[in-house]
Amino acid sequence: MSYVVYSIKGGVGKTTLSVQISQMLGLTYVTNDSHSSAHNLMPEGKGFLVSKEEYEEIPFDENVVYDFGGFKDTRINSIIKQAKKVIIPTLTSIVDLQATMATLKDVKEINEKIIIVVNRAKNNNKAVELKEYLNEEIKKLYKDIKIPIVFVRESSVLEDSLFDCEYIETKAGENRFKRHIYRNAIEDMQEIKKLLKA
Fold first, then answer.
1. If you write DSSP's letter for every residue of 72-141 in order, what string do you get?
2. Does domain 2-197 have CATH number 3.40.50.720?
3. For residue 94, what are the contacts with CB-CB under 8 A and spacing of at least 6?
4. What element of type H or E holds 54?
5. How are strands ordered across the β-sheet holding 3-6?
6. Rg (alpha carbons) of the chain, rounded to whole number
7. pTM, full prediction
8. Closest among 103, 113, 52, 115 to 82, alpha carbons compared
9. Residue 4: C-alpha distances to residues 90, 91, 125, 132 (Å)
10. Residue extents of the structural domains in the chain
11. pLDDT of res. 129
């Protein structure tokens, strides 16, 4: 099963999320972003770059998490169409939300199996208001589809995970202290896993 993590905006946590999902599910990581180095940090044979210079089209594979950068790339449409789910990450600013709605409009035309992930969310009322706002906007524009919205709480653990590209639950291992420190990130990734498998 392949998954796409995509937003037209950069800096919303696509790469962190893509790497975690690929490691969590044991899938290959593929990016079209030449400015990213995550593919080089992945275990051998598990990370690839499909730059425009080298690939006229992006090969589709069933066992891949595609991390599509914050720019327009016409090669991605066929991959999005075939993906089991498309994950659209966002942050909480109005600019990010507008970019999320624009990304949603693009994606919905070719694949309606979408999940919105609000990255770096804080445990406060703003997160709840944000979810309500997104739900209202989606309902107003697309009455016919239900889109799950989940939060990944703010965590230095997830940001740091890019240095070794290891799934955070694996990284915590059986160490009770580490599992306590990583618990929010582990819980959030498990919630995403359930939605991806559904």
1. --GGGHHHHHH-SEEEEEE-SSHHHHHHHHHHHHHHHTT---EEEEEEEE-SSHHHHHHHHHHHHHHHHH
2. no
3. none
4. none
5. 47-49, 28-31, 64-68, 3-6, 85-90, 114-121, 149-153
6. 16
7. 0.94
8. 113
9. 14, 18, 29, 24
10. 2-197
11. 85
CB 30 within 8 A of CB 65: yes
What secondary structure letter does DSSP report for 149? E
Residue 65: closest CA among 147, 163, 142, 165? 165
Distance CA 97, CA 134 (A): 8
The alpha carbon of residue 186 and the mean position of all alpha carbons in its chain are separated, in whole angstroms, by: 15
Distance CA 33, CA 16 (A): 13
| Alpha-carbon span 27 to 67, nearest angstrom | 12
CB 164 within 8 A of CB 38: no
Polymer length in residues for the chain: 198
Which tokens is 195 given?
Answer: 């939605």
Burial, 147: exposed, middle or buried (Cβ in 10 Å; 0-12, 13-18, 19+)? middle
Q: What is the pLDDT of residues 37-68, one digit of tens each?
A: 889 889 889 999 999 889 999 999 999 999 99
User: What pLDDT does residue 162 have?
Assistant: 82
- What are the tokens at 69? 């950068």
What's the chain's average pLDDT? Answer: 92
